[in-house]
Amino acid sequence: MASTLSLKTVPTKPFPDALAGTSGLRKKVPVFMQENYVENWLEALFFTQPPPAGKESILVTGGDGRFYSEVVIQKVMKMALAHGYKRIIVGKDGILSTPSVSAIIRERKADGGVILTASHNPGGPTQDFGMKYNISSGAPAPEGVMHAQYEHSQKLTSYTIADVPDFDISKVQTIIPFSGVTIEIIDPCDIYINLMKQIFNFDLIKSLFQRKHFKFTFDALHGVTGPYALRLFHEEFGCPVECLMNCNPLPDFGGLHPDPNQVYAHTLVERMYADSSNCPDFGAACDGDGDRNMILGNHCFVNPADSLAIIAESASECIPFFAREGVKGVARSSPTAPCVDRVAAAKSIPCYETPTGWKFFGNLMDAGKISICGEESFGTGSIHIREKDGLWAVLCWLSIIAHESNKRYPLSGSSSSSAAPSSADSSAEGKVVSVQEIMDEYWTKHGKYFIQRHDYEGVDSTKAHSLYDTLRDTLAGKSEEELKKITGDDNAKSCDVFNYTDPVDGSYSPNNGIRFKFVDGSRFVVRLSGTSSSGATIRVYYEKYSDDKAQFHKKEAEVLEPLVATFSRVSKIREITGFEKPTVIT
Ligand code: G16
Asked: Are residues 475 and 546 both part of a single domain?
């Protein structure tokens, strides 16, 4: 152990493109590899968000293990030390899921966290990397924090870093490199799994895995959730490892695109739509950093907006945490179809609409206004942490299925719906309620939204901005009559731009998408993605409501076709971008 920390000051110059988007800074790896690029971002961060004095300041760091993480994590540790952090908690091998970082920050009362991930975007030497800062509540930093960080980064002339050799983070251990400074390398899963045990009834979920007819599958897409999934589904619930796919995190995600949607998680989707009696009852996938989830049943897909609503509907009955705490309110991002609004109305609890970005939920959670929230982008979560949480959503669904199955097909010897089986399964006991049944019952009660998102990825940035600005200027604020004329659609009703004022701190976030409404309540929303690492992505979200049971199993594309036609006509998307059709439809 050396007695003093020696520091090095290195001259640098600003990088104008290092501006955080919807969720941190995301760029291609070669951009991050530029000399001083990472250091500049960290210098500006630690200068504008210095470790608090008068206590042992603690920073948590880790990520999804994508390419270039092992280099960057050393820089994070050394620069945090140079700026006065006294304890750095690091995941072994630099691995920590995003929800796990949020959980650790809260559990260990840390002052912040630096997460190394580009989330659902691909990894590898020419693919994406990302850095993100979370504050002491465990939430992604609010816009104001990242604006201040960016402004400071544009004035930098030097940065300061600890002049020490790399730390060995390949084993769980505590290193004291200097007096008063601790580097704590922790098991990535322990704190997170313990938290899940406080939220869910693990015996109830285990009872589902013991039912004869329950077949489960999970795809970690070679992202960070692999080790967590093995701990939960295999070690805790007894699921055979063969049912868990791609559970070893790889720097390039094995060439997969770690985005849990029907397009990129196609192996799982094929398994869930297999034409055989072997098709699993339940399938799920998470993204690279573990905050997104996709839920599937035997031959059915659960739209994230439905998933959020179903979790909100059932939470107090099926999940001990919500049975104890209640569900105080809910929230969804603006482009998310308002399924959960109907659940909230039925339960007489408040429902908030926020801009896209998990950071907008943080204040509502801290103020006790909401308990559960979610987004169309495959994100669902609750107040247990301040990030969306992919595995938490999977556990919610397993709890709901287990609870409903126990109600309808009780296990012998169990008087309560939440007990584990006490004797061998008979064939009735082996039955499980299907995901489709749960969805059908929920649609029957609340009605169904037909939902699709069309993404146009890799559009020239200037063209994408011009399309968005022109559309906004043409439609927003116009009268119903004018809109009918402009769009040539007799169903046109209204159009506005979503500007958000935070109900807790009054902060203002303008221009969060164009919302176009039709007379029958259908709508489309248009916005530009804030997470693409190069070029621009135009996202168009379509939704149409029906409470006619006979319609529920119609195809989304067929129901939404008139909305798509109106958008295409008025936006001139084909003519402007040259894209004949969206690159991804989810
Ligand atoms: C991030 C944010 C989410 C947001 C999503 C999509 O997710 O945390 O809140 O919904 O991006 O953003 P955009 O539509 O701007 O691309 P993640 O999973 O990428 O961190």
From this structure: yes
Could you read off the pLDDT of 452-509 as tens digits, one per residue?
Answer: 999 999 999 999 999 999 999 999 999 999 999 999 999 999 999 999 999 999 999 9
The reply to whether 387 and 511 lie within a common domain is: no
In a domain, 372, yes or no: yes
Show the low-confidence residues of the chain (pLDDT under 50): 415-425
- Specify the residue for token string 């649609």: 443
492 and 360 within one domain: no
As beta bridge partners, residue 245 has 219
Residue after which a domain boundary falls, among 125, 156, 188: 188
The answer to whether residues 576 and 430 belong to one domain is no
Tokens of 584: 């991804």
Quick one: pLDDT at residue 159? 98
Task: Look at the pTM and tell me if it is higher than 0.85.
Answer: yes
pLDDT tens digits, 423-439: 444 566 689 999 999 99
With CA atoms as reference, report the closest residue to 405 among 424, 428, 382: 428
Domain range for 38: 7-188
* Ligand 1 atom 18, closest CA: 119
Distance 90 CA to ligand 1 centre (A): 24
Residue 356 CA, ligand 1 centroid: distance in Å: 7
Q: Which of 23, 119, 378, 529 to mutate to test the pocket of ligand 1 (most atoms within 8 A of CB)?
A: 23
**Three-state secondary structure along 502-518?**
CCCCCCEECCCCEEEEE
Q: Is 93 in the pocket of ligand 1 (CB under 6 A)?
A: no
Say if residue 314 is in the same domain as residue 381.
yes
Quick one: pLDDT at residue 417? 45
End-of-domain residue from the set 136, 156, 188: 188
Q: How far is the CA of 21 from the centre of ligand 1 (A)?
A: 9
**How many domains does one find in the chain?**
3
CA of 27 to the centre of ligand 1 (A): 14
Catalytic annotation, pick one of 119, 334, 529, 533: 119
Whether the CB of 358 sits within 6 Å of ligand 1? yes
Calculate how far, in angstroms, residue 504's C-alpha sits from the geometric centre of ligand 1.
22
Task: Examine the residue annotation and report whether 277 is marked as an active-site residue of this protein.
Answer: no
| Residue in this structure with the two tokens 């600003």, named with its chain if needed | 14
Residue 1 lies in a domain: no
CATH code where residue 150 lies: 3.40.120.10
Q: Which atom of ligand 1 is nearest to the CA of 537?
A: 16
Closest ligand 1 atom to the C-alpha of 529?
A: 15
510-539 burial code (b ≥16 CB/10 A, e <16): eebbbbbbbeeebbbbbbbbbbbbeebbbb
355 lines ligand 1 (CB under 6 A): no
Same domain, 161 and 37: yes
- Locus of tokens 């176009």: 516
CA 10, CA 551: separation in Å to the nearest integer? 65
